[in-house]
């Protein structure tokens, strides 16, 4: 068989008629490849390389006037990379202009067609495939619907509809009384005869939705001659704050032509607080922040750091553990799936066991670090000034008070003068002072003193010390399977000590009456050395920290040689442990804080259990005294100080990790990997059903970094809650926090209905008879509210003014400031907590509450884990109505995270209030089930539930409710479009040939 024509291979065509080579090949236009067989071609177009090529040649098209080049598939990052390219800079220099230009939108792109529905340029080769995608079809349907809607709003056939039907923002009292606007139907065409047939609302077709709009027209039927008018009125009456929208459809008939047609008007009403909207309205239109890739730092002049960096007498050095260059290169890839596959193939151990354990998690840490550094770059400042006072240069940092970015004493910030001739040279500033809005930096002596006219670029750099401590632990030789991968073979004894046989005297008398708590304490205290890890599984409000503290005290009382490390992921959780162990005295208990922590951040009663240097920085006492402490309490990351100062492995008999579900496995392993030996017992306390560790990288999450150590162990057969009870796990079941109505739903959803309400009746029953409740005796309120989610300036975080205003209203009622609603119950600001899933919403709510109840804590779900309040108010924020053009699951965002949901609704003791849009929340099966629970028990207020709450929720629906909603929206749109076409174009009923001459709509 002759070979394929080389000219065809290289150029794509061959015009030599005498050529004897093969030309019967199949060519892939996007890739410029040819294939000898159909099978080879089919394999190619199904492959990733072809798909990436096609995707790279489809998308937004930008034109660079400097390079005279059109580029397809461009994003802000692509454009930034193009601007930094050598060829672009060379072309700009040749033309004597700046390379920093704004791209132009490309009008025509060779070999591409513009899809107007999706607003992208599509490779001609891929046009048919693009038009077949679900996203394109949805957008095309939406475009057709919008065109039909726009057309139907126009006056036609000489008939005009006058009147303003947007009621605007209305006070609640006015809306409750009702507001009326007048409208007129007029005929301005001489000789025409048009009859007004009917006026109806689009919502009339929905049996569950009760529209707040009503239409009254006293005169139907008679012909509207020239200059004739018919008056009608639209009334808006609503009993609650919310937005409302409907469509008024006016059906008319030209009696001479026997043609019916519709003119529509959109009705809108918004009940809310004008003052709150004025205070919270967006400061500027939302413009996505342009993430500019950082150019490499070729040289960094070292800064001067605070003495706190040397407050700890470490005996060894931390490894640098920098990200391998080839891994960093792979992580720059755009396709997450491809990056994950490459990492699996090239880096991760084939088998996840003790041999490759350290390598596995070191890799995941590097992946997460790469993303953290990338995210931190979004806070970089491109044009600012520095002020000088004494030895410090002060820098204003927007968002510092909200920890966006988070900056601690000892961190490093890079600064560069804007007019520097060397763009790769930066000065490192050591952070010495952190205030509300500014940080104080110290630079090398060669840094020129700042003047008021100097402008600077600023880069925030990741504090790598926590990561380096985790790498140090993962590099250790500790690799015991009984700790890392425990199974039945590692059990020293299958029998476990019973409560009756233990005969111990408890320190906390409440534990004596709680069988699961007491069993956990007994099992831990009587545990043989070198046992598998023991888990205290503590659902919300069951007292897992109380159990852990009792176990620590019992271990120390039973064994005079026992030494304990107790750690937790956060300082607040570690402080709670230390506070409850203060009875040990200052000779036995030591609370270690990182030197970067300020004294004022530490509870006065714990300061006697700490050690500071002469300069006032937190540190450790001499090694001999450190060894004498029977219990050391610290955070998981700071636990590295124990081995770092020279205390030998095995010195501590027990390592306790509280709130272990919130720590990454490498974090939890710092104390274990550096200090445990074959005899050390490990005790974990937490709840894998609540929030896990915060992981920023999707890739790291996908590779398993979000799964905590305690969660991974509980997935093993050994830790079955029934079979392993008392041997290696105890599940606490008595809830001391919430009223049963609040506890019931999460109990059944997450804990098999095993939790038993044992809260203080004086607390949990506080609001049972309150007039605030829609139904007395059921202390849950779901406040249905159709608001609007907004963004502003460059912040991608959402906020909802309507919900923020409603939250403020509830706080005013709860604090007795509302004269119309009196609860008769006296609580303080500290008894109320407000949870919102978006940072911007937290900021807006704090702003509204500051003048009236500044002491109310407002924060994210993460900030409330482990906490409780008598009253919890949740603002869910999302209220998007883009049901067709956008992904509905994305509309919900992380509101639909089951763990976040679990934590949020289990913080309340006496009263739970949820403010949200059921149309959006109902897309998620878990939220839908909760809304059904609230509604069927009488806890609903506001607009009615938009579905039948008695219908069972299918847990297997997944994205089904989202697709169902999208389908209903599409049906409504298509049905409306069809009616508009029929009534606007077709003749009277009975004309069978009406479609013969109807033009076909041309496909884009």
UniProtKB/TrEMBL annotation:
It is found in: Cytoplasm, Cytoplasmic ribonucleoprotein granule. It catalyses: ATP + H2O = ADP + phosphate + H(+). One of its GO terms (biological process) is regulatory ncRNA-mediated gene silencing. SUPFAM superfamilies: beta-beta-alpha zinc fingers, P-loop containing nucleoside triphosphate hydrolases. InterPro entries: DNA2/NAM7-like_C, DNA2/NAM7_AAA_11, MOV-10-like_beta-barrel, MOV-10/SDE3_DEXXQ/H-box, P-loop_NTPase, SF1_C_Upf1, Znf_C2H2_sf, Znf_C2H2_type. It holds the Pfam family MOV-10_beta-barrel. Residues 28-50 form the C2H2-type domain. Belongs to the DNA2/NAM7 helicase family. SDE3 subfamily. Residues 944-964, 982-1004 are annotated as: Disordered. Keywords: ATP-binding, Cytoplasm, Helicase, Hydrolase, Nucleotide-binding, RNA-binding, RNA-mediated gene silencing. Its EC number is 3.6.4.13. It comes from Mycena indigotica. This is RNA helicase. GO terms for cellular component: cytoplasmic ribonucleoprotein granule. Residues 995-1004 have a biased composition (Basic and acidic residues). GO terms for molecular function: 5'-3' RNA helicase activity; ATP binding; hydrolase activity; RNA binding.
């Amino acid at each position: 068989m002759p070979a394929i024509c080389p000219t065809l291979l290289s150029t794509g065509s061959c015009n030599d008629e005498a050529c004897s080579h093969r030309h019967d090949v199949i060519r892939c236009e996007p890739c410029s490849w040819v294939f000898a067989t159909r099978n080879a071609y089919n394999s190619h177009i199904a492959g990733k390389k072809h798909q990436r090529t096609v995707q790279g040649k489809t998308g937004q098209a930008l034109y660079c006037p400097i390079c005279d080049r059109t580029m397809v598939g461009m994003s802000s990052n692509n454009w930034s990379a193009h601007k930094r390219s050598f060829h672009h800079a060379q072309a700009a220099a040749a033309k004597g202009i700046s390379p920093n230009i704004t791209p132009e939108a490309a009008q025509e792109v060779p070999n591409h067609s513009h899809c107007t529905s999706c607003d992208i340029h599509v490779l001609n080769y891929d046009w048919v495939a693009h038009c077949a995608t679900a996203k394109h079809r949805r957008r095309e349907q939406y475009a057709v619907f919008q065109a039909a809607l726009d057309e139907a709003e126009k006056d036609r056939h000489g008939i005009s509809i006058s009147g303003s039907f947007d009621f605007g923002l209305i006070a609640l009292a006015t809306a409750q009384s009702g507001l009326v606007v007048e409208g007129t139907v007029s005929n301005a065409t001489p000789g025409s005869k048009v009859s007004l047939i009917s006026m109806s609302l689009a919502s009339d077709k929905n049996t569950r939705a009760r529209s707040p709009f009503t239409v009254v027209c006293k005169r139907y039927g008679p012909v509207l001659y020239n200059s004739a008018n018919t008056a009608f009125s639209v009334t808006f009456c609503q009993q609650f704050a919310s937005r409302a929208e409907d469509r008024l459809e006016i059906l008319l008939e030209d009696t001479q032509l026997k043609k019916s047609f519709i003119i529509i008007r959109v009705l809108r009403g918004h009940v809310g607080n004008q003052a709150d909207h004025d205070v919270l309205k967006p400061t500027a239109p939302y413009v996505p922040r342009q993430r500019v890739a950082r150019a490499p730092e070729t040289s960094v002049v070292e800064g001067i750091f605070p003495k706190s960096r040397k407050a700890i007498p470490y005996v060894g050095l931390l490894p640098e553990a920098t990200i391998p260059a080839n891994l960093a290169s792979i992580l720059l890839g755009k396709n997450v799936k491809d990056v994950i596959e490459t990492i699996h193939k090239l880096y991760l151990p084939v088998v996840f066991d003790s041999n490759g354990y350290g390598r596995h998690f070191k890799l995941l840490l590097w992946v997460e670090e790469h993303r953290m550094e990338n995210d931190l770059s979004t806070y970089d400042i491109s044009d600012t000034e520095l002020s000088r006072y004494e030895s410090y240069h002060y820098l204003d940092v927007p968002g510092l008070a909200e920890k966006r970015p988070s900056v601690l004493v000892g961190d490093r910030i890079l600064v560069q003068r804007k007019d520097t001739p060397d763009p790769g040279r930066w000065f490192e500033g050591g952070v010495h002072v952190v205030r509300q809005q500014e940080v104080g930096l110290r630079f090398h002596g060669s840094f020129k003193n700042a003047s008021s006219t100097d402008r600077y670029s600023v880069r925030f750099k990741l504090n790598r010390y926590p990561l380096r401590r985790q790498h140090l632990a993962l590099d250790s030789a500790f690799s015991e399977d009984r700790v890392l991968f425990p199974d039945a073979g590692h059990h020293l004894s299958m029998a476990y000590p019973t409560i009756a046989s233990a005969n111990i005297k408890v320190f906390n008398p409440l534990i004596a009456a709680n069988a699961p708590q007491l069993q956990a304490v007994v099992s831990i205290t009587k545990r043989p050395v070198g046992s598998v890890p023991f888990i205290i599984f503590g659902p919300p409000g069951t007292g897992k920290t109380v159990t852990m503290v009792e176990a620590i005290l019992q271990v120390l009382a039973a064994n005079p040689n026992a030494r304990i490390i107790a750690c937790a992921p956060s300082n607040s959780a570690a402080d709670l442990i230390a506070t409850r162990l203060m009875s040990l005295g200052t000779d036995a208990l030591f609370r270690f804080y990182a030197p970067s922590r300020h004294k004022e951040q530490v509870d006065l009663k714990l300061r006697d259990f700490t050690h500071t240097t002469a300069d006032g920085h937190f540190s450790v006492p001499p090694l001999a005294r450190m060894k004498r402490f029977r219990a050391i309490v610290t955070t998981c990351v700071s636990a590295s100080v124990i081995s770092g100062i020279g205390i030998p492995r095995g010195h501590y008999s027990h390592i306790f990790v509280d709130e272990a579900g919130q720590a990454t496995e490498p974090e939890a392993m710092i104390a274990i990997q550096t200090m445990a030996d074959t005899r050390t017992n490990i005790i974990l306390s937490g709840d894998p059903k609540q929030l896990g560790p915060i992981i920023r990288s999707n890739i790291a999450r996908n590779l398993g970094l979000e799964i905590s150590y305690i969660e991974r162990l509980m997935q093993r057969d050994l830790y079955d809650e029934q079979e392993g009870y008392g041997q290696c796990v105890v599940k606490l079941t008595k809830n001391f926090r919430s009223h049963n109505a609040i506890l019931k739903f999460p109990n059944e959803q997450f804990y098999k209905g095993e939790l038993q309400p044992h809260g203080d009746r004086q607390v949990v029953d506080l609001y049972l008879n309150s007039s605030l409740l829609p139904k007395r005796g059921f202390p849950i309120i779901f406040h249905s509210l159709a608001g609007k989610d907004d963004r502003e300036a460059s912040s991608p975080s959402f906020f909802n003014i309507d919900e923020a205003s409603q939250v403020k209203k509830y706080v005013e009622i709860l604090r007795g400031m509302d004269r119309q609603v009196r609860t008769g119950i006296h609580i303080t600001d500290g008894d109320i907590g407000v949870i919102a899933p978006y940072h911007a919403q937290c900021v807006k709510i704090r702003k509204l509450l500051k003048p009236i109840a500044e002491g109310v804590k407002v924060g994210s779900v993460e900030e409330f884990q482990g906490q409780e309040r008598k009253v919890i108010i949740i603002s869910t924020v999302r209220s998007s109505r883009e049901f067709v053009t956008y992904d509905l699951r994305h509309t919900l965002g992380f509101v639909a995270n089951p763990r976040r949901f679990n934590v949020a609704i289990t913080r309340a003791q006496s009263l739970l209030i949820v403010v949200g849009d059921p149309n959006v929340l109902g897309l998620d099966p878990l939220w839908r089930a909760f809304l059904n629970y609230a509604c069927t028990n009488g806890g609903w207020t506001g607009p009615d539930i938009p579905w039948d709450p008695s219908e069972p929720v299918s847990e297997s629906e997944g994205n089904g409710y989202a697709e169902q909603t999208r389908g209903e929206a599409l049906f409504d749109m298509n049905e409306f479009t069809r009616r508009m076409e029929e009534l606007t174009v077709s003749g009277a009923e009975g004309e069978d040939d009406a479609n013969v001459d109807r033009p076909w709509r041309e496909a884009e």
